[in-house]
């Protein structure tokens, strides 16, 4: 069994959540569900970055106390669990969770040999909470000119150790283009990093620097520390040993805009403190609307809660997983979401399962213990009912004829369908190992394509009218639907559950067919 600590970034709470963060939350949830199904020991962490100057300025602009704005918006992020069907194990708020200040303070003390006071003068982008050379490509507002005494971290010491971790594979960055981007940044040389801000400029909001109440800890040091503070690093709890020091995999999901912080600054801090590095950083690109990045700062946003309320959770999850490429931004419209849900979930998965289960009931496919007559066209039953939670091949119809008897000679060839069912688990494993969610759902979608092709090849409704036994054909198709439901489970859990319920015998017979997924209307 593999132990996996899996994290999202923690977003600023200067506004309510948007679809851009929903993308990362859903991707992390898919990985967590997938690995749990494969028998791994998984802990999924998410949370909110409350201690940002952006949050303070947003509260001032709204005319409300900072605490009120932060609490309200942080609650909205935590509440994404229900509309997005998220299965996170832990949710940490940096301004409210007692584990966090202790962890940040311990990390500061563990890096004390690399900290010193000095004066900084330069341009500061409030949007990304970072000093910049001139303008910031991520945020249109001009940076502020700042001059103040700060604490500095000797980042320049760690260019070679961080580069070695990446090139050796100890710290894997996917996709490769992002890995190369980080290496190019390292090749440009590293300057020491300002890691505190004056308490006055921070409006007194944030975690005080240990032993220096005139300074607060830089929000990125604060935020990155959540990955270990959530594990009771500050108090020496057992969770840190199990999920960080002793974990087989420490996996961060991040957006491309914060890659530098996670792939350079965070490893440098960990090396300074003598702590293990993350094993993987999986990077996604942006969602856009009309070509403009979705973000709270720009005001370009799509409300994921409203979308899920209007079209259903699985429609939102499916679009994020099926449409967003591994590399490159994806432009969102509601019309595309509706078209994808109708084409794939309603017209593809739903239509296939409804046709197969309707035919199976109509032609008397039964399992031992059924009340009433056995299969009217097959003359017998198979060895037993399938396990509806099974994943992969080897169930009712895959590799065996099942309760319907053999497949008639010369009537279609199930080989491609059987192969799609057998191969899907391994292909999903490989794709998700590269954070290629679109390729992963594509591997599952192949089952739908091959099942529909086999259904049209054999046309069992016509064979039955001609007196040809079709139980074996339907058994193969029914088992393919079960494999489909099992492999869909990490991606669209509710739809997958309905597929499996439709294909699971009750008292030896399939339940009455019901729609697996409704067609959406704009």
Automatic annotation (TrEMBL):
Residue ranges of domain Methionyl/Leucyl tRNA synthetase in the record? 5-135, 143-356
Q: Which GO terms describe its biological process?
A: methionyl-tRNA aminoacylation
Q: Name one GO molecular function term.
A: methionine-tRNA ligase activity
**Record EC number:** 6.1.1.10
Q: Which domain of life is it from?
A: Bacteria
Q: Where is this region: Disordered?
A: 366-389
Q: What is the uppermost EC class here?
A: ligase
PANTHER family assigned:
METHIONINE--TRNA LIGASE, MITOCHONDRIAL, METHIONYL-TRNA SYNTHETASE
Name the family.
Belongs to the class-I aminoacyl-tRNA synthetase family.
> What is the designated name of this protein?
methionine--tRNA ligase
Q: What high-level taxonomic lineage is stated for the organism? A: Bacteria, Bacillati, Actinomycetota, Actinomycetes, Micromonosporales
